[in-house]
Amino acid sequence: EEKYDQGLKKSRSGFGERLNRFLARFRSVDEDFFDDLEELMIESDVGYEMAVRLSDELREEVKLQNAKSTQEVSNVIIEKMVELYEEAGANEDDSIHLAEQGPTVIMFVGVNGAGKTTTIGKLAARYKQAGQKVLLAAADTFRAGATEQLEVWAQRDGVDIVTGPENSDPAAVVFDAVKKAKDDHYDILFVDTAGRLQNKVNLMNELAKMKRILTREIPSAPHEVLLVLDSTTGQNALNQAKLFKESTDVTGIVLTKLDGTARGGIVLAIRNELHLPVKFVGLGEKVTDLEKFDASDFVYGLFK
Ligand code: GDP
Questions:
Q1: How far apart (Å, rounded) are the C-alpha atoms in residues 218 and 108?
Q2: Whole-prediction pTM value?
Q3: Which of 10, 106, 254, 270 shows its CA 20 to 30 Å from the CA of 234?
């Protein structure tokens, strides 16, 4: 909870405080009130559809609860946001699927700069601390420095890594890594991938090839394909997500840089429009700045 507190400072000053200011000058629950509220939510990236639904349901709920004071209305808003979030993902599992036997394989996809490498570094530290034998695969062989960046994390975390030469076939790195994970009995393998969206067809073919190789070596793999999205890019992140979702079987979202955005509402839009669980959120650049997503902590963090 403390992490959300720190990490959501900007969203709070953007969204939470604006809402609180808005509520402070609010006199009666009339049409203008709800119109303005709807606008505020759209600006906070909760998505148009979600904003309209929220304000519609709030109209009802405020009436039903006969909420009059600012505090009462604010509580209703928070309750509704958590409820709508949880409802939108009622059938979704936000835990990480582990292999029943042998190594668990988690692939990370997303555009360059979204935070894949950093997220892997943070997660690897966590699993290592939990006593797991962790292996990293640096399958982003195209971006200059990507392999070195992951090597720095591997060293810092004290975990092993498989790399390949620059511009080599990323599928070869994946092949070497999955073999090593099997042969040397690793518990978990994290696969970093390239994110060159300039060449969508190539990128998607490349991801498909990696998946095939993983599945050939370990039939149940990959156990997760996590799409990493930069929350500061707002609606752009949503559009990227749609693209990746169409071409790969994404199993969950990691939403990074929530500490750097005033638009934390994007979390609601993702759940509502993509129907994918947000599994982790990035709340800073440090190794500990990664949290399992919790809707209630998150929404309360926005308004606190
Ligand atoms: P990749 O290209 O997808 O592998 O992205 P990187 O992991 O290299 O991240 C790009 C930049 O975003 C780096 O400078 C990271 O330190 C930064 N970054 C990643 N996650 C977060 C986060 O949750 N919060 C903040 N503030 N920065 C982040």
A1: 17
A2: 0.85
A3: 106
